[in-house]
Amino acid sequence: MSRWIWCPLVLLLLLPLGCEVQAQVENRVVFLPGAFQNVSVSQNETVQAVVSRIPPEVAFITLQFHTQHRNATLSYTRMPGLGLSLTAVDLGLLSGLQPGQVSLSLFLSSPDGDTVAGTGVILPYSSTDPVPGACNIEFNLDIDPNVYIHYNLYETTIRFAPANLGYERGETPLACDESTETTTRWRLQYDIYQYFLPENDLSERSLFNGIQAVANIQGMMENGKRVLTLLSSDLSMAVFNSIPGQGVIFSVVVRDPVLNTSASYVSAHTYACSFASTLDGYAVFWVTFCCIMLIVPLFFVRWPREGNIVTCGIVGAYAVILAVNAYVYTSLSYITLNILKRFLNNNFSAAFTDVPFQTIDYILITVWVVLAVCGIVLQLYRERSRPFFPPSPYLMWLQERERRKTNVLDPSHHFPPLANRLLARVRQLTKRMEPAGEHTPLLL
Q1: To the nearest whole number, what is the mean pLDDT of the chain?
Q2: Can you tell me where the transmembrane regions are (predicted)?
Q3: pTM here?
Q4: Which of 131, 276, 337, 413 has the fewest Cβ atoms nearer than 10 Å?
């Protein structure tokens, strides 16, 4: 588990400040370790993010910044450049520290010329903690601690760069791919966490509260859900079910099982939709699905009326839940939506299909059960004195067979076996027909 580096010197420095967040002053803002700072970046403005009084135990830090849907640019230099900056809604930079270094500066700007408001935080790590994204070969930054999200209607994919083992200030980091021994970065493990924002809440405040709840490792472990653990030999990616309109925060925690240390990547969020437009196991699954679809009707073939009533009660009550979903968001609609997604998208089987289950879902499940039970009981009561409907074809066949065996007065009892009847029919069709008329000798 990771550890925060709160040395007595830092605590002494923060006590006079009362651990309060520093106010943004013109084009400069000061970050305190672990304390979130709201920052507003005006158009054509560059805000200097300053981290000072860094204790010597800290080997590297990450500055992460989050906005709801507008891009921001975070850069090592005042003028952003390729490989030295990143533009996104969830972004962060990792800075390794040199011996004796006690401060550093990074720069925030708005790439689209609009005012951007967001929240940021500094997270410090020691030399024994893994370095997130230090073995990056896919993205632009030399060391990239970010989680990248891509989504479509069906699935949401997250990607990140592999980490490396930690190292002291001024030392050369270990090579990433020279060896796969346990003394290298190949011993690292990656825990992927998922945190659902409140349902039907697209507010900026809700997002920032969620980001603050899961920004560090302890917060993510307490509030998020670990859905997957990847080894260094696995692809550094994961696929999830897309839930348009539902806010989700993804985070990756890299762990060193030998030193029992860890570090957090920069969390990233998605609503699986665009704010620009009005807030704008495949085969196995289908085998199981088809088996369920066959087993349930076969189970009720002996009791067709009861089966029909139970089916109507459950499906009818669920139809009411789907109607409610048109006005109030509920995760229960994904019972059918996920099946449709699997049918329409062959790659959807690789996605994790977790959905948030919150207060509204408990309420609607209760409504579903009550409606289903009431509907089933009412129909059984109404049908109790009516003729049995419809007769089971299987029971009718059994009764007819038994009747033919026991009722000798029934003409069908004397029917020859089917094989004899078929043979007689074949003979009738192949028998030579004699010409009609009288045959007499010709009289002269």
Answers
A1: 81
A2: 283-303, 315-340, 360-381
A3: 0.63
A4: 276
pLDDT, one tens digit per residue, over 274-320 is 776 544 455 676 677 677 777 777 777 777 778 888 888 888 888 88
Query: Per-residue confidence at 106, pLDDT binned at 50, 70, 90?
Result: very high
Strand partners, 51: 31, 104
Q: Which residues contact 60 (CB under 8 A, 6 or more apart)?
A: 94, 95, 96, 97, 124, 125, 131, 166
Going from N- to C-terminal start, the domains of the chain cover 8-168+185-270, 282-383
As given in the structure block, the two tokens for residue 189 are 């493990």
